[in-house]
Specification:
With 287 residues, this protein is an alpha+beta fold. It folds into 2 domains: 190 residues, Chemotaxis protein chec; 48 residues, no CATH class. The chain contains 7 helices and 10 strands. The protein has a 6-stranded antiparallel beta sheet. Strands 7-8-9-10 form a 4-stranded antiparallel beta sheet, with no helix packed on it. A hairpin with a 2-residue loop joins strand 9 and strand 10. Helix 2 crosses helix 4. The mean pLDDT is 82. This is FliM/FliN family flagellar motor switch protein. Keywords: Cell projection, Cilium, Flagellum.
């Protein structure tokens, strides 16, 4: 068994700080979602782009992280109560336009890239409206009880304005064409969608734990709450009204205690002390 290693104060100061927002949440299951999303979007690339344009687009890598502040232009769409953002880097958009219009797919010089056109913006909107339903479908499929989005075209409405900081989780997919790296496709989830993702992942964990746990009998599953009545003292109302802070009531702790379930007395038991705790032993059924 590996032993814990004590590191110096200098080395400890260089370790990344623990994000308290991740505590108690199934962040360790996000790679499960990443793998499912990668398979879903790989199918999108094959069906929507490669087959149509005889291209060789593929996903080179997928990364997930909390988004950092930047100046990238994001397109936001509303879908099934969630807000989803998308950003497609220009080299990837230009390569798609080259395939669409039959231009030679050559590596573009950064200094010779033309100004952004309305055609690029329309293509980015079109891709987002086809990609984002697949993203949400992948999230919903993590919930075993959910049926996903209803069949038919998804109502993916573009949002004219979304405040900065709406995205709380970002997925970056590096796209390649053949042996060449082309550009990145970035997706963001708002807080509502990310909470749904974590909830669905947590449901999968609970379901897996339930399947792995051995089956319990009814006798083992049945839980009964016992209450022990150590003493019972009757007092006149006037004596109760005369009580003040610091008043002392003389009582005698009985050797046996009444054990109740709800209001029903079922057992009598001896009161014993073990390691500073009161325990019940010697149960006898009450008549």
């Amino acid at each position: 068994m590996p032993r814990a290693r004590i590191i110096s104060q200098h080395d400890g100061a260089q370790l990344p700080a623990l994000d308290l927002r991740t505590l108690g949440r199934p962040f360790h299951l996000l790679p499960v979602f990443g793998k499912a999303l990668q398979e879903e979007l790989a199918d999108f690339l094959q069906q929507e782009l490669n087959r149509r344009y005889h291209a060789h687009f593929h996903i080179r890598a997928l990364q997930q992280a909390q988004p950092a502040a930047d100046e990238r232009r994001w397109l936001w769409h509303a879908l099934d109560g969630c807000q989803l953002g998308s950003h497609i880097e220009r080299p990837l958009l230009l390569r798609l336009l080259d395939y669409r219009f039959g231009a030679p797919a050559a590596q573009a010089d950064a200094d010779a890239v033309p100004a952004e056109t309305e055609t690029e913006r329309r293509l980015a909107r079109s891709l987002a409206e086809r990609l984002l339903p697949r993203l949400l479908q992948c999230i919903l499929r993590l919930d075993r009880q959910a049926g996903g989005l209803p069949p038919g075209p998804a109502d993916c409405a573009q949002l004219p304005f979304v405040p900065p900081g709406t995205g709380v989780w970002e997925i970056r997919l590096d796209i390649g064409d053949g042996e060449h790296a082309i550009g990145a496709l970035c997706l963001q989830l708002d807080a509502t969608c990310f909470e749904r993702l974590l909830k669905n992942l947590s449901g999968r964990r609970d379901s897996a734990d339930a399947q792995a746990a051995p089956a319990e009998t009814f006798r083992e599953r049945l839980r009964v709450r016992l209450q022990a009545r150590l003493l019972d003292r009757e007092m006149a109302l006037g004596d109760i009204m005369d009580l003040r802070p610091g008043s002392v009531l003389p009582v005698t702790l009985q050797a046996r205690s009444e054990v109740l379930v709800g209001a029903s007395r079922l057992f009598d038991a001896d009161v014993a002390e073990q390691h500073g705790k009161l325990c019940l032993t010697g149960f006898v059924a009450s008549e």
